[in-house]
Amino acid sequence: MAEPRPPVRRRDLEAVEIDLLAEGIYEAYGFDFRRYSRPSFRRRIWRRVEAEGLSSISELLARVLHDPPCMQRFLSDLSVNVSAMFRDPAFFRVFRAKVVPLLRTYPFVRIWNAGCSTGEETLSVAIVLKEAGLYDRTRIYATDMSEATVEQARTLTYPINKMREYTANYIEAGGTRSFSEYYAADGERVMFHPSLAENVVFAQHNLVTDRSFNEFHVILCRNVMIYFDRVLQEHVHKLLYDSLTHFGVLGLGGRETIELVSHRDAYVPLDETARLYRKVA
Amino acid sequence: MTTGCGIVAMGASWGGVHALGVVLAAVPADLPAPVVIAQHRGEDGPAGLAPVLGRRSALRVVEATDKQAMRAGHAYLAPPGYHLLVERGALALSTDEKERFSRPSIDVLFDSVASAYAEEAIGVILTGASDDGAAGLARIRHSGGLTVVQEPATAERRRMPDAALAAVNAHRILALDEIAPFLVKVCAEGGP
Ligand SMILES: C[S@@+](CC[C@H](N)C(=O)[O-])C[C@H]1O[C@@H](n2cnc3c(N)ncnc32)[C@H](O)[C@@H]1O
Fold first, then answer.
1. What is the pLDDT of residue A247?
2. A14 touches chain B (CB under 8 A)
3. pTM score of the predicted model
4. Count of structural domains within chain B
């Protein structure tokens, strides 16, 4: 926020420039940000404008079109990778209490962690399933739109200074072991035990432009659709709905609601506060 | 020129729960604009802030949900661990990086308010031991909105109002108990 933004008279102009930028990127590169939620998309754009030493969104459009490395930089801005293990511990507590018992009734379980970022959420689910004795008959598909992000997730490594927070979250989420059993420290970083990723498939997948690729008993898509506008949320909800088995479970982020989506009637809450829903129609 | 009362955005940090309580308790239910609030609090801070503030206010104080429509008579609180942003008529959330060590960030909220509401925005900076909010308030001012800063001498921590005043030639510097009456008056008259 160092630079003054354009004055009010140009507010509508800014909206035009954002439209053109999104359209240009779509035409030139196929990445579709046209229906990303404007307030946060706008912030990302201005940050990139400033980082490139430019002064308008139109200048950024010119640069991303003619300079693919600049597009790459903008892309990594947009795969916002703020995640944490056992983020929102109450969610995982409820997952243990209410989802795990359902999963016990299946001979084999498929889970889709859509928008998995760098894998923190995926490993949290893997740990819960290990402790429940279900992991060996589970496969977790963990996907994100950014290949670089998925590549990072595959390394199973995280900064060691995060472990205090993650350990506290783990305990609050109902974990009963010593969290440090799950990783080995290596200097400034820790690596989680490869057995946690044995049944995980990390893959690049874009929720906006790619299709459903399987049927799942559980889909977690938390804090991903907040980056989409309501039209795009509708589109992605359809994709998730089509990818869930009957009685499958959908998990959303703590401040997301299914109430605004037309598929809401196809779900009943499994736990409203944890944003866990069950597909019943 | 400010044209008053499309939205009221308030930012507070240290001492903010008390200060927000005072302001919200004195705002009538028929305030014609929605109120959006970024109050710094710990990532897993008490979820109970909305009911605490709501108990003493005529407004319905709720924690924001993504893409929720905003309505007058309501105050929307940034949830812990999220940035709160607005577009015209609706809320949006993000889990982007902290800004100035804060999420929610007052700057992020105010910047979006300035962009969406321009001269219909009112920005209010209350007590806090942080520089957050100064740049955001400047954005509201720059976009033609109305800017209010709590009189630093009446703030539990004066750093935040001081920082805001250093960044913005604010329209009003008011004691805590003058803020709600001023908001009511501005919204009734359509100008400062
Ligand atoms: C804030 S992170 C959420 C991570 C994790 N689910 C959590 O709750 O901690 C949002 C993730 O969504 C991903 N994302 C954004 N747009 C996407 C898209 N179109 N398809 C797939 N993933 C996307 C981003 O790359 C980012 O990793």
1. 97
2. yes
3. 0.94
4. 1
**B60-78 per-position pLDDT tens digit:** 999 999 999 999 999 999 9
Any domain includes B67: yes
**Does the active-site annotation cover B13?**
yes
Q: Which CATH number belongs to the domain containing residue B128 in this structure?
A: 3.40.50.180
Residue B119 to residue A223, Cβ atoms within 8 A: no
Which residue range is the domain that position A33 belongs to?
Answer: 10-78
Domain for residue B189, yes or no? no
B48-57 contact pairs (CB < 8 A, 24+): B49/B17, B49/B77, B50/B77, B52/B17, B52/B21, B53/B17, B53/B20, B53/B21, B53/B24, B53/B77, B56/B21, B56/B24, B56/B25, B57/B21, B57/B24, B57/B25, B57/B27
> Do both A253 and A169 map to the same domain?
yes
Q: Which of B73, B10, B27, B49 is nearest to B177 (CA)?
A: B27
User: How far, in Å, CA of A35 to CA of A43, rounded?
Assistant: 15
- Which residues 170-189 of B are in CB contact (within 8 Å) with A? none
Q: Is the pLDDT of residue A235 over 90?
A: yes
In a domain, B192, yes or no: no
The parent domain of residue B52 ranges over 7-177
How confident is the model over A15-48, as pLDDT tens digits?
Answer: 999 999 999 999 999 999 999 999 999 999 999 9
Average pLDDT over residues A251-277: 96
